[in-house]
Design goal:
single chain; 195 residues; mainly alpha; extended
Length: 195
């Protein structure tokens, strides 16, 4: 569904406004410049500009929603028609792949055992057979190895492989808990409300 002439004109106008609102805050590559404020007047001025930018963003989002809304609604309806069948087939696919993977792993282990036995016995024919084994070639099916990590002892994992849970640290800090090796610093978060 193409845009109407009115929608297209409005988008062109909004894009022009975007350039006017943002040009002095972007470098030549279109990246945001670091803004350094030194006075209350600069802070007040930039805050007013922020309100203009936020109002502009809201208008853009509303226009985008008006244009994309019908598409999203139609897509959601179409997705609903396919959801059950896709869910079922994805479960079956996963089950089949698991079974095939288990078979390949079992055959590979068996081939390794036959290879070890052939090496120990010196049987060259058995050695060649075991060394050349691969799963049956099936057109359209390929196999690759994906490593899976299985934790057998959490306590034995070296510290450098443990992930820091910043959310848990923030909750503990709010509760007044001091955590060695961590400094929790309050930073202002600017919220903008436009009508």
């Amino acid at each position: 569904m193409p845009l109407t002439k009115s929608q297209n004109t409005s988008i062109v106008k909004l894009n022009k406004e975007a350039g006017n609102l943002t040009s002095e805050y972007l470098d030549e590559d279109g990246e945001a410049l670091m803004i350094q404020l030194e006075t209350d007047e600069e802070y007040s001025g930039i805050a007013k500009h922020l309100l203009h930018v936020k109002t502009y963003q809201k208008r853009l989002k509303e226009m985008r929603k008006a244009v994309t809304g019908p598409f999203k609604d139609a897509l959601a309806e179409v997705d609903g028609h396919f959801k059950t069948a896709l869910t079922v087939t994805e479960k079956v696919e996963s089950s089949i792949k698991d079974g095939m993977g288990n078979y390949i792993s079992a055959v590979a282990e068996e081939a390794q055992e036959l290879l070890r036995e052939a090496v120990e016995s010196g049987d060259k024919e058995a050695l060649m057979e075991a060394a050349n084994y691969s799963q049956p070639p099936i057109s359209g099916i390929s196999t690759r190895v994906n490593q899976q990590v299985i934790i057998t002892d959490k306590e034995a994992i070296p510290r450098e492989f443990l992930k820091v849970d910043e959310s848990a640290i923030k909750r503990a800090a709010k509760a007044g808990v001091k955590i060695p090796g961590v400094e929790v610093v309050d930073r202002p978060l600017i919220a903008v409300t436009v009508k």
